[in-house]
Amino acid sequence: MDITITTPALLFPAISVLFLAYSNRFLAIANRIREQHNLFNKTQSPVAKKQIDSLRLRIRFIVAMQIFGVVGIICCTLAMGLIFYGQQYYGNMTFGFSMAFIVLSLLASISELLLSTKALNIELEDMEAHSR
């Protein structure tokens, strides 16, 4: 199957929205780390200590999300260039790689979301323990 130059171009609007979401996740986690740092320095809270590993792993997932997304965009752009210059086979292959990297980015996003939910449950458990 041969794709046209417009096929990879269809990903560009979705990619910009994806990166906006990823940037927001990164900013949110950065703020959360700063809050946890202040809390831990003031209280030496065991709950804050539990969150450290989770926050570290979440940062890794967010970085992976962004790297896979960027590589996906680069492959998508290369695919368009290859198709433009008549290298249909290599363009198709590169576009396939771009989609694979976008999928990896989305899978990392799901993993980070699940880890985020687990971290929130730690906070909720602490609140429940103190309300009894």
Provide a quick synopsis of the model:
The chain is an all-alpha fold and 132 residues long. Helices cover 91% and strands 0% of the residues.
Overview of the structural elements:
This protein has 132 residues and is mostly helical. It has four helices and no strands. The chain has helices at 6-9, 11-43, 46-84, 88-131. The protein is rod-shaped and about 70 Å long. 25% of the residues are buried. The model has no long low-confidence stretch (mean pLDDT 86). InterPro entries: DUF2721 (IPR021279). Keywords: Membrane, Transmembrane, Transmembrane helix. This is DUF2721 domain-containing protein.
Report the radius of gyration as a whole number of Å. Answer: 20 Å
Q: Give the biggest sheet.
A: none
Integer average pLDDT: 86
Structural class: mainly alpha
How many helices? The count is 4
Q: Report how far apart the termini are.
A: 64 Å
Low-confidence stretches: none
Q: Secondary-structure element sequence?
A: HHHH
Per the principal axes of the C-alpha atoms, what is the gross shape? rod-shaped
Q: Tell me the strand percentage band.
A: under 5%
Helix content class = over 70%
DSSP E strands, number: 0
Transmembrane segments: 6-24, 59-85, 97-115
Protein name: DUF2721 domain-containing protein
Organism: Candidatus Methylobacter oryzae
Keywords: Membrane, Transmembrane, Transmembrane helix
